[in-house]
From TrEMBL:
It comes from Streptomyces kurssanovii. InterPro entries: Glyas_Bleomycin-R_OHBP_Dase, Glyas_Fos-R_dOase_dom, PhnB-like. Residues 5-131 form the Glyoxalase/fosfomycin resistance/dioxygenase domain. This is VOC family protein. Pfam families: Glyoxalase. CDD domains: PhnB_like (cd06588).
Amino acid sequence: MASRLNPYISFAGNAREAMEFYKSVLGGNLRLNTYADIGGETSPDDADKIMHGMLETERGFTLMGADTPPGMEHKPGNNFSISLSGEDAGELRGYWDKLSADGTVNVPLEKQMWGDTFGMCVDRFGISWMVNINESQG
């Protein structure tokens, strides 16, 4: 899988509805994972919220989205990040190193409970980035 760059939108509890709407507009294949699907400690109120959603269309569009995680503030207008993802760990770590330099690391780039290596940062220009290194399903 080549590395990809796409928008990642945070929603205020209605990610499922929004992502299903975008699928109705753009077509394609929609995959939704709830907090309960991923495991770990989740309150009953958050179990069915979307932890990660991805819409991939026949035209090559990719849109990702999720409900704002518990404990984080949802800010309409600033509720998006740019996502870099793929399997080339060296390439993606290089992007991470440059993007996070002189910026703020919100989630260190490290192995996460869903099995991938993931991090979140805000670059020196105030842009939010997510980097996800997919682990081989091998």
